[in-house]
Amino acid sequence: MIPDTQPLSHDPMKIIFNYQNVFFSFFYDDADACVHRSREYAMNYVLSGEMVLDDGNRQVHVGKGECVFIPRDHRVTMYKKACCGEQYCGIYLCFTRPFLREMYGKYVLHKGSLGNVEKFSPGVMKLPPSAEIESLFASMTPYFNPEVKPQDDVMRLKLEEGLLALLHTDKRFMIVLFDFSMPWKMDILDFMNRNYMYEFTLEELAHYTGRSLATFKRDFKKVSDLTPEKWLIRKRLEVAYRLIKEEHKKVVEVYAEVGFKNPSHFSTAFKKQYGIPPTALVPPLSI
Fold first, then answer.
1. What is the Cα–Cα distance from 176 to 119, expressed in whole angstroms?
2. Where are the domains of the chain?
3. pTM of the entire structure?
4. What homologous superfamily is domain 188-286 in, according to CATH?
5. What is the tens place of the pLDDT at every residue in 230-259?
6. Tens digit of each residue's pLDDT (9 = 90 or more) over 267-276
7. CA nearest neighbour of 128 among 165, 77, 76
8. What is the Cα–Cα distance from 5 to 3, expressed in whole angstroms?
């Protein structure tokens, strides 16, 4: 995370400030989408406008006055847009591992509070309304004014208040938030087969499959003769071939769906792989 309090975005259509892992966002345009990969647990409260979160399996709509929990190591696309005549305005609390370790020692370690708490694994989850959540985020609205800069210890208290609001919402969050064990190794090809359409660095692939970078590279060599980058390109092309040939989808729809950034790159890679351009698979009237 960037500890600076200068705007993180220089886009004239949006302003984002980070105060000690508390992010204030205001979007002037009608819609904005970003792929968000959070390695930390987080809460996002919408003060105005609307946010839609899409994890590839379902969409969660978060409206004015609503708050959502986002699990760590979770990939989600966020769409932030205007609603009911109001632009998007929101506050995002990021709970880092060092912060949670400290809070564990403060609230759990010496109280033995985890013994009888049921385990659960929440995905993106809209939180039920509560006075604690509403009052917390209402107290931070003055900091949307860039001339009003909060003290670091105040923002620290706001993070702590947000954490307590989560724990009071559902005690099972204790098991989730205070789990500091190392992740189990995930099957590499299973993960990549389910997420081939997204852009990942090697470091991200290693992280999301529960490995160090060196271990990921070593393990990947055991399951493929290709590099991870070439494996992803081949996978995208195989899926694209099936979508065009068998499901009769248009080329202009398929290239982005499988993860290519532009049709030119897609066509070049497709022809290199199959010896024909993708348009050769489509009846003339369907191109």
1. 8
2. 14-177, 188-286
3. 0.66
4. Homeodomain-like (1.10.10.60)
5. 999 999 999 999 999 999 999 999 999 999
6. 999 999 999 9
7. 165
8. 7
